[in-house]
Amino acid sequence: MQHSKIESLSNILKEADKLVDKIPKVSNHEDFLYYLYFLSLYDISENIYFLIKHNKLRNTPILVRTFLETYIDLKTLLKEPSYINNYIIKDLNFELNKLNTISSPSNPIENQEIKSRVLMLKNEINERKLTALPLALDYKEKFNNLDLLLLYQTTYNELCSFSHNSISQIEKRFLTPINNSSVILNHLAKPKIKDYEEYLDLVETRLKEVINIISQKINL
């Protein structure tokens, strides 16, 4: 089972690798964003493959969560291209909030540079708001808009509990029940790939889908 999963993901990564070489070096900004999302998914998948190959499965759910969020962001953008402005506004606000906390009274030149950058950011944010969607979506809303609410309520929520190191997930990874009152520490035991198969299948299925989408974008 483990060997077949490694081989299966390896074959999909080879397809993705061939596609990477065919991405245009010059394109419009919107298309490049699609390509960048694909490259990010490809990169995350390679890291997941590395962990599987070396039997380091316990942390794969954290990467699978990042993979799934990136996939959902790409699908949201494909469905509503103008949402790119919401993504960019979020990044600009992040930088703006950071700059608002680092002003230095002892360095007036640096302060002036920060003020200039803050003004520039505010102007760009206001400009992009003119074409952005009225409300930014959280991940639950994004899943729902893509008719994937069940995936959010099940797999995605479980992946989040892994990422947040919930007690139940820590116990699942490192403890084995003996009876109703006793457990045994199993941190040295090799994880079983069947316990992660659902997540690996998700990566394979969604990466294949994105390969097809990007292939159509570049008319292959």
Secondary-structure topology with pairs:
Layout: H1 2-20, H2 29-53, H3 60-79, H4 84-99, H5 108-129, H6 139-145, H7 149-163, H8 167-174, E1 175-177, E2 183-185, H9 197-217
Antiparallel strand pairs: 1-2
How does this structure look, described?
- By secondary structure, the protein is mainly alpha-helical.
- It folds into 2 domains: 2-79 and 136-217, no CATH class; 81-132.
- Helix content is 70%, strand content 3%.
- The chain contains 9 helices and 2 strands.
- The chain has a two-stranded antiparallel ribbon.
- A hairpin with a 5-residue loop joins strand 1 and strand 2 (183-185).
- Helix 2 runs antiparallel to helix 3 and helix 3 (60-79) packs antiparallel against helix 7 (149-163).
- The chain is globular and about 65 Å long.
